[in-house]
Amino acid sequence: MNKRRDKALITIMATMLFLAACGIETGGKVYSEETAVPEVSSQDLLVNSLEYLLEDKDETSQDEEEAAPDAEPPAPDSGSGNEAEEAAQSRNRAADGSQEEAADTVEAVIYYGKAGTLTLEKETTGVTAVTPEALLDRLAGHNIVSLDTKILSFEQEDRDGASVLYLDLSKAASEYLDTMSKEAECIIVSAIADTFLDNYGADGIYITVEGGPLTTAHSQYEQMLTVCTPEELMAAMADTDS
Predict the structure, then answer these.
(1) How far apart are CA 226 and CA 231, in angstroms?
(2) Could you tell me which residue, 194 or 98, shows the higher pLDDT?
């Protein structure tokens, strides 16, 4: 834009020199070859020159404004130190809560059938407390009992120097066993007995349904059960049948 302004000044000066050379004066007329030249005063030249320069300056300012880079946006507020401290404390409390929850759990041993065999698998799992309901819930997770099987009562007592358990289940327990083969029934009954005997450190268990002996399509469990394998239970069942 400065070059344009310099060219304009040079043009104006050249015009004034030309007019002076031709004999133009303020308020006068000059005739050349019978052709009238219009009056041009030095004041008019100066006014026109100033207007041109002002227009050029405005255009220059506008171009500079358009070319100017956008102002950088303000930096985001990073938050106060107190907020960061509160967030850290919240994370620490959550971590402490998780550790306390882990510390509150205890181990329980669950027995369940090994696929395709007459043997039991043993699993150690965490529970908030060793209760009959917690054990039954874990057994249901391995399909040892149905999900609708409930515990009606549970007792542990010493009898003749032995620790004996009394587990009374809802009718859903026997109905579930009625759908099983003899082998599957032996796996289920032995898994229930071994799970409760192991977790309560007992010597024997009576399993009943609604107050009466556990009765299925294959057998009736009136005697106290001790720790046993499915194969041992099947052998005992065969002896009873004979």
Answers:
(1) 14
(2) 194
